[in-house]
Design brief:
This protein is an alpha+beta fold. The chain folds into 2 domains: 2-168 and 305-313, Ribosomal Protein S5, domain 2; 175-301, GHMP kinase, C-terminal domain (Alpha-Beta Plaits, 2-Layer Sandwich), CATH 3.30.70.890. Helices cover 37% and strands 26% of the residues. It contains 9 helices and 12 strands. The chain has helices spanning 71-82, 106-120, 127-138, 148-155, 186-199, 201-223, 227-243, 249-257, 288-292, and strands spanning 2-14, 25-40, 45-50, 53-58, 90-96, 158-161, 165-166, 175-179, 262-268, 275-280, 297-301, 309-313. The strands form 2 sheets. Strands 1, 2, 3, 4, 5, 6, 7 and 12 form an 8-stranded mixed β-sheet that branches. A hairpin with a 6-residue loop joins strand 9 (262-268) and strand 10. Helix 5 crosses helix 6 (201-223). The longest helix is centred in the last third of the chain and has 23 residues, at 201-223. The radius of gyration is 20 Å and the shape is globular. The protein starts with a strand and ends with a strand. The chain binds (3R)-3-hydroxy-3-methyl-5-(phosphonooxy)pentanoic acid (PMV). (3R)-3-hydroxy-3-methyl-5-(phosphonooxy)pentanoic acid binds at residues 12, 16-17, 19-20, 103, 105, 145-146, 148-149, 186, 190, 269-270, 274.
């Protein structure tokens, strides 16, 4: 039997970093996916095969000794093996079309797809259970994760975090994703923001309040079909991200080069590299490559509405 699950990547439209400190955030799942296939083996090992490499460890060995990208899989495999008798080994294969380390949710989509695929060998879990164990798995890499990424990869569509309420996009969001090609490290960026907070608690708390108000206005703008306000709020959110110092010259240059054709733009995800998103009208999409330059990757994101999907092949 093979248990196969696929989960979408994501963008954070509003609220990254501040969400770790308790504010709301708005996220959307995108049409790039990771697929995880799990099967029983008789090897007394957990085998993980992915583009990032392969790993073989004895069952029930500690995930902490593995390279960080493999930890969630070992954690999830051990959790399932621990609560189910007569399991002698697992093979886990990962196929992904989500770029790694650029803020598009590759690690959370892996955690959600792996939680669904591995648990699916034993029984079908509810979305709430999948989300809970995928956040546990993601904490093996990012102990301070807000859980927002796993939530949108599980449920799909556009959601508000932490309520996980679905938001209907009333206007056609034409979101451009542009990759700075600078890999980022979410844990380091989150730690940097923690330091900013420690150094200036008052300003950080003001920024959290400003972010909350901004998100409330975005939700009203979406209900009113108001793309102009949505775009302006993206650029306002970027100012807060600049202030907490998760931007850099490359990201600023990318944002300003798109100014003339976008309604708004900002970093998406942890920053310090990774991707930016911009709200660009259809008729201007063909101008993007020339404005950004050849060394940047860019594509138009479609919102995924399905979230995690699961199937089984009996052999
Ligand atoms: O760049 P990413 O996809 O790892 O985004 C992390 C988003 C943060 O808000 C910075 C952290 C979190 O756990 O929400």
């Amino acid at each position: 039997m093979k248990s196969i699950a696929s989960a979408p990547g994501k963008i954070i439209l509003f609220g990254e970093h501040f969400v770790v400190h308790g504010t709301k955030a708005i996220l959307a799942a995108i049409n790039k996916r990771v697929t995880v296939t799990s099967a029983f083996t008789d090897n007394n090992t957990i085998n993980v095969n992915s583009e990032l490499g392969t790993l073989e460890v004895p069952i029930l060995s500690s995930y902490e000794e593995a390279k960080s990208e493999f930890r969630p899989f070992i954690y999830l495999a051990n959790k399932m093996i621990n609560s189910n008798q007569n399991v002698n080994g697992l093979e886990i294969t990962i196929d992904s079309d989500i770029p790694v380390g650029v803020g598009l949710g590759s690690s959370s989509a892996c955690c959600v797809a792996a939680a669904t695929s591995i648990s699916g060998l034993f029984n079908e879990l509810s979305s709430e259970e999948i989300l809970k164990i995928s956040i546990e798995a993601e904490k093996t890499i990012f102990p301070n994760t807000s859980g927002a990424d796993c939530a949108v990869c599980t449920y799909g569509g556009m959601i508000e975090h932490p309520s996980i309420e679905k938001i209907d996009n009333t206007f056609d969001l034409n979101l451009l994703i542009a990759n700075s090609m600078i890999p980022h490290n979410t844990k380091n960026s989150v730690e940097k923001v923690n330091k900013f907070k420690e150094n200036d608690e008052d300003r950080f708390s003001q920024l959290c309040d400003l972010e909350t108000k901004l998100i409330d206005k975005v939700i009203v703008a979406m209900k009113n079909n108001d793309a102009t306000t949505f775009g302006l709020k993206m650029s306002e959110n970027q100012k807060y991200l600049e202030e907490i110092q998760v931007s850099n010259d490359t990201l600023r240059d990318m944002i300003s080069s798109l100014n003339e054709i976008s309604l708004g733009s900002k970093i998406t995800g942890a920053g310090d590299g990774g991707c930016i998103i911009a709200l660009v009208e259809d008729e201007n999409m063909d101008k993007v490559p020339a404005l950004l330059g050849k060394d940047k990757e860019c594509f138009s994101a479609k919102i995924d509405t399905k979230g995690v999907v699961w199937s089984v092949i009996e052999e």
